[in-house]
Model the fold of this input.
Amino acid sequence: RGARAMASKISGLRCFGGEAVPAELRDDLSPLNAFGPSDLDALVVLVLSHLQRLDAGALVTAVSAFGKSRNIKNMSVLEAGVRGLIAVLQACAKHGASARDLEADVATLGLDETRARAVGRAWESFASREPSDELPAQLAGEDLRQLVDLEWKFGVTCANSDSDRPVGKTFLQLKLVLDRNGTHDNVYVELTLPQFYDFLAQMEKAKAAMKHVAKAAAPGA
Done:
């Protein structure tokens, strides 16, 4: 049993600081060999751009559009490839790995020499356009806070001297409890009904996105 467990892990990757990662990561990345180098370069830049913006919902939409523009029939393969790229790129940012380190690691994870070189070039090109002290923290997700709890209440303006809130206007007040490194912060937000419905739509997109990035968020699982 112990031998099988060891076989399911890959170690010695520089982007992961030498920590062992699941062998499934190779399964996610290997099919990207079917992509041309230019398409793979574009996909890496797409993933990096959306990771920097910390917008998982927009990433799902962009990946879907990318697949359609390249006439990709098997979207599950593309989604798995993106999941693998997220895991590797976030680890690369977290551990301050170089483009050469990234190139070597993705080659170990199944990409051929040409595709591995394309990934390394895309990383180097993207990183050169961003401030070096901001890029790793953003991509590694170090600024993210987990939503622990949410409370809300509706209200209707009856009388108010504030000209920006007409009488009879319905509004919603949210209380967000956010966790960051074990510390809980309360954040209060007031929304109009249209803003609230847009917020719900974004939450649904985020929920859907987690299905694609859950494995990347916990590569040791």
Summary: The first helix runs from residue 2 to 7. The beta strands are 9-10, 21-22, 146-156, 170-180, 183-192.
